[in-house]
Amino acid sequence: MDEIHTLIVGAENEEERLLHQRVDKAATASRIAMGLLVLGTLLTLGMVCIAGVLTFSSLKGKRKAERELEEFFDISQDLFCVSHTDGYFKRVNPAFAEVLGWNEKEMLANPYISFVHPDDIEPTLREVEQQVVSGRKVVDFTNRYRHKDGSWRMLSWKSVPLPGGFMYATARDITRQYQAEQHVIQLNAELEQRVMDRTKELDKANLALKDGEARTRAFIEQAADAIFIHDFTGRIIEVNRRGVLSLGYTHEELLGMNVFDIEVDFDLPGAQAEWRKIEPGKQYLIRGHHRRKDGSVFPVELSFGCFECKEETLYMALVRDITDRMIREASHERLAKAVEQAAETIVITDATGSILYANPAFEKTTGYTAREALGLNPRILKSGKHDDEFYRGMWDVLKKGETWSGHLINRRKDGSLYDEEATISPVRDADGTVVNYVAVKRDVSQELKVEAQVRQMQKMESIGTLASGIAHDLNNTLAPILMALELLREHVKDSDGLELMETMRQSAQHGADLVKQVLTFARGVKGEMTDFNLMSLSKEIQKVIHDTFPKNIAFSLKADSNLWMVNADPTQIHQVLMNLCVNARDAMPDGGGLEVSLQNIVIDDVYAGLNPAAKTGSYVLIQVTDNGTGIPPTIRQRIFDPFFTTKAVGKGTGMGLSTVMSIVKSHGGFVNLYSELGKGSTFKVYLRAITTPKAVGEAALRQAKLECGHGETILIVDDEERVRDIAAKTLVRFGYQVLSASNGAEALALYAQHREKIALVLTDMAMPVMDGPTTIIALKAMNPAVKIIASSGLRSNGNVTKAMGEGVGHFIPKPYTAETMLAILARALKEKA
Length: 833
Hints:
Elements: H1 2-55, H2 62-75, E1 79-84, E2 89-92, H3 95-100, H4 104-109, H5 121-134, E3 139-146, E4 152-162, E5 166-173, H6 175-222, E6 226-230, E7 236-239, H7 241-247, H8 251-255, H9 268-275, E8 284-291, E9 297-309, E10 312-321, H10 323-341, E11 345-350, E12 355-358, H11 360-366, H12 370-373, H13 388-399, E13 404-411, E14 417-428, E15 434-443, H14 445-488, H15 495-523, E16 530-532, H16 534-548, E17 553-559, E18 565-568, H17 570-586, E19 592-603, H18 605-610, E20 617-626, H19 656-666, E21 670-676, E22 680-690, H20 693-704, E23 713-717, H21 721-733, E24 737-741, H22 744-754, E25 758-764, H23 772-782, E26 788-792, H24 798-805, E27 810-813, H25 818-830
Parallel strand pairs: 17-19, 23-24, 23-25, 25-26, 26-27
Antiparallel strand pairs: 1-2, 1-5, 3-4, 4-5, 6-7, 6-10, 8-9, 9-10, 11-12, 11-15, 13-14, 14-15, 16-18, 18-22, 19-20, 20-22, 21-22
Helix pairs in contact: 1-2, 1-6, 14-15, 15-19, 16-17, 17-19, 22-23, 23-24
C-alpha cells in the first residue's frame, strides 16, 4: 500500500513541476509582448508630441518640419495613417504594404473597415465613435486586419483626432505577441484543466487506496493461514488474526517479538543467508516448526516472499499448520507401503476398467510390469478358462455397487496359467458414484497343488488299503494254483500238455508278481535292507536286457569308478531299474538307445532349490535315458499314479512307475523326470548314499574349491522361473553379475542392449516362443564370438546335438548342482573365443 501512495505522490510532484515550467515560459512571453506594446505606445506618444511641436512651431520652421515629418512618416517601420470619418484612409505609409501586403492605392480605394476581421468591425467602429463623441485625445484598441494573402494580422492602434473630421493613427503588428499570449492563455487553460483532472484522479486514487487498504486488511485478517510481515532482523512488523490464534500470543505481544522467538528450525544468520537469495515477486515454499506460547511445537509450511516498502525490504510469510496433513500423509505413506509390500496382488482401475495402479506383487505374479499394465484392461490376463457368462455375472454384481469375490484362472505374460482368489470392490466418490474398482487377489496355485497332493495322498492311501486286501486274496488264490501246477507236471508227459501247463504257470507267476508290486506300492513293503554297490545290480539288469530286449535297442551302462554304496533292499531297487528300463523299451517300438548311468552327487542348496523333493546331502544318481517318443506335458503329472497307463489294453498294468515312486520314497530318495516329445525321456532316481568321512571331506573340499567369478555378466535363458532364480542367486553369490530372460526372444533383446558386458550365455534347449537352438543361431549371428553353454535334461537331445553343431562347446545336464554349473562356467570363460 505504501508503494502505491509513494508512486501517486511522485507523479503529482512531477506534474506540478512541468506545469510551473510551462507557466514560467508563458509568463516570460507575455512580459515580452507587453514590453513591445509599451514601446509602441511610447513611439506613438512621441509622434503626437512631434505633431504638436510641429503644429505650434513658428511658421518659419513650418516647411522644414513638414518635410522632416514626411520623411519620418515614410521610413517608420510602424504603420502610420490618416483617416477620415467618411470611412476611408487618406494617407498610409509604406509600412502598410510591408505588413498587410496591400499597396497605398489599394488601401485608399477601399473603406478601412473592409480590411477589419468581421468579428472586430463592431468593436472598432465603437472605439472610433467614442473618440469622436468624447473628444479623447488618444484612443488605444486592437483589431485584426486582413492580409492580402487572406491571413489575419493583429494590430495595436493608437489614434489622435484632428480638426475637420480627420484622425491620425499609428499601429504596430503584434500578431506574434498576440499568438504568444493566446498560446499562454491556452496553456493556462489546459494546465488548469489538467490540474483539475489530476486532482480528481488523485482524489479517486486516494479513495481507492483507502478502500484497497481496507479490503486488504479485511482479507489478511480473515485469511485461513497465519500471515507475518517482518524486516531483515526478524522483527515482526505485522501479524494477522490467524497468526495470533495459532500461537496463543496477543497481537501486541507478537509485534514486540522476533520471528526466531517462535521459529524452531532456523537461526538468524542462517535465515538471513537465505533471505538474501529471495527475489521480489517470487514465492518460496519451505517446511519447518513453530513454537506456541505454551511451549508446544507444531509443523508448518511457509510460503515466503519479499517486497520493497519505503526503501526497505520486508518479508511476508504465509504460514499454514500442517499437523493434520502430516498425519494424513503418514497414514497414506503407511497405506502405500502396505500396498507396495503386500503379498497379494492389488490393482486399481477406473470406472471403465482401465488399470491405473498395480503393486509389485502384480508384477511378480503376472509377469507384466506396472508400466506395461498401465492403461490396459485386466482382460489381458484372461485365460479362456471362463466363459462369457462368468464375466457377465461378475460385472452384474460390480455394476450394482457390490463387492464380487470368486476364483479366477488367469494367464501370465509368459502364457502359463495360475489360480487366484479375487475380491473386487467398487470405490465411490462423495456423490456416491463409482469412480474406481480395487481388486485384491491372491495366487493360490501352490495351495491348490498342495491340496491336490493331499487328495492324491489320501487317494493313494485308499487305493493302497484296497490293493492290500485284494492282493491278500489274490495271493491266497494264486498260491494253490502254482503249487498244483508243479504237482501236475509230474503226471503230464506229452509236449502239448507240458506247454499248456507252462503257459498256465507263467500266467499265475505274472499274477503273483503283480500282487507283489501292488503290495509294495500299498504298504511300502520293505525287504532286507543291506549296504551294496549299485554297479553289481546294474550289471544284472544289463544281462537281462541283453537277453530279453529287442536287438534294435542299444544298451549302455556307465558308472563312476568310486561309486558310493547305498543302504537299500536290492530286490526292490532291482524292480525299480527293471520297471524304468521296460518303460524305456516300450517308448522305442522301432528301436533306439537306452543308457543307464550311475554317479556320485552332492545335493547343494542350488539343486535343492530347483527340486522341492530334494534335500541337501550325498546321493547316488541313477539315470535311465531313452531317445523314444517322449511323454506329453499333459500327462506328466499323472504317470506316477497307480493304474494309470497310456498303453493298449493288456499291454500294461499302470503300476510300474507308481511302484518306482513308492519304493524310492520309502528309501528316502526322490525321482525326477525330464522329457521332450519326439526326443526321449530321462528318469533320475536319487538314493541316499553311504559315504565315509573321507568321502565327505573330499566332497566338501571340492565345494570349497569352486571357482568364483570376477564380476563377469552371465545371461541366463530358461522358461522355468525357479531355475532362473536359484541359478542367478548362486552366480551372484560366487561373484558374477546376472541378467535373466524367460525365452529366446527376451534373451536377444537383452543381448542387443548389453552386448558389451555379457561374457557368456547359459541357455535351456526347450523353451516357448523361441527354443534354444534358434536362440543360439541368432546370438551367433549377432556375435560369432559369443560364448554359450547349453542346458537340457536330455544329453542325447537332438537340440543339444544341433547346438553343438552351431559351435556350443559346453553342455550342463539338468538338473545340475552349483559345483557342476560353476566348474563348466569357469572352464568356458577361460577358453578363447
